[in-house]
Amino acid sequence: MTREEALALLQSQNPETHLVEHGEQTEAVMRAMALRFAPGQEELWAMTGLLHDVDYPGTKDDPARHGLAAAEIIGDALPPEAIRAIAAHNSECTNVKPESEFEWALRCAESVTGLIKAAALVRPDGMQGMKSKSLKKKMKDKSFAANVDRDRIRECEKLDLELGEFLDLAVAAMAAPEQH
Ligand SMILES: [Fe+2]
Fold first, then answer.
1. Residue 180: inside a domain, yes or no?
2. Which of 98, 125, 135, 137 has the CA that lies 20 to 30 A from 119?
3. pLDDT tens digits in sequence order for the chain, 180 residues long
4. How far is the CA of 154 from the centre of ligand 1 (A)?
């Protein structure tokens, strides 16, 4: 599946702009994680990141189907491991438990985007020069971006990736000019 096809599929669900942005940010973090943990799988990890919430416009009132309905929308455009990773990103509702590095990566990648986006809004330079140390501080502040699940961000440790390193990797990926 090309990026153009993936984006068209995402757009076909009439998502709100912020959901497309969230997909693109998750795509960028997943691409960077694949470079390190699954070289050669960058496109698969990136497209799975881009499409992980593709079913959200149709499931926002039915959380148990979020992550499962995506399978019907994506069909065989992505391989089964991507479909499973998308289901496992909402394991709390779908009961599909994350097992592989790919699956853990999608969960922590899509969660860290919310933290970094919120932190960028309160900095004059946005993501430029953002440090993992200040992000860690914000993670401890429960009132900051309260909807961002800290435990899911810490799941980076399932890939033997230390939190600070993960935050640096994610900031770099999200701040980089888009490649497309
Ligand atoms: Fe998401």
1. no
2. 98
3. 999 999 999 999 999 999 999 999 999 999 999 999 999 999 999 999 999 999 999 999 999 999 999 999 999 999 999 999 999 999 999 999 999 999 999 999 999 999 999 999 999 999 999 999 999 999 999 999 999 999 999 999 999 999 999 999 999 999 998 766
4. 16
CA distances from 37 to 9, 69, 88, 104, 105 (A): 27, 28, 19, 12, 9
* Dist. CA 68 → ligand 1 center (Å): 13
- What is the residue range of 57's domain? 3-175
67: left (phi over 0), alpha (psi -120 to 50) or beta: left
- In this structure, what token pair is assigned to residue 148? 């961002």
What is the spatial distance between Cα 79 and Cα 68, in angstroms, rounded to a whole number? 14
Burial label, 127 (beta-carbon count in 10 A; 0-12, 13-18, 19+): middle
* Ligand 1 mean position, distance from CA 51 (Å): 9
Inside any domain, residue 16: yes
Distance 179 CA to ligand 1 centre (A): 21
CA 121–ligand 1 middle distance (angstroms): 19
Centre of ligand 1 to C-alpha 88, Å, is 12
Q: How many domains does the chain have?
A: 1
| 142 within some domain | yes
